Amino acid sequence: MDAPKELITEEQLDPNQVTLFLKAQSAIELSNYDYALSILHNILKEEPTFLKGREILRAAQGAKWRTSGKKGKSLLSGGMMKVKNKIKKDPLGAIDEIEKKLDNDPYNVEANTLFYEAFMALGIPEVATFGLETIREGHPSNYKNLHKLGDHYLAEGDGTEAAKIYDQIVQSDPSDGDARKKAKDASAQATMAKGGWGLADRSFKDLLKDQDEAQSLESAARIGATKEQMAAQLAELGAQYSEDPQNLDVVKKIADLYERLEDWENSASYYDYAFSLSESDETLQRKAEDAKDNLRSQKIKNLESDIEGGGDGVEDKKAQLDELRNASIEQQIKEAEIRVERNPTDPQLRFDLGSHLFTAGQYREAIPHLQKAKNNPHIRIRSMLMLGRCYDEMKMYDLAVSSLNDANGELFAMDNTKKEILFNLGLVYNKLGDKDKSLESFKEIYNADYDYRDVAKRVEESYS
Question: What domains lie within the chain, and their CATH numbers?
Answer without folding.
Answer: 10-139 (1.25.40)
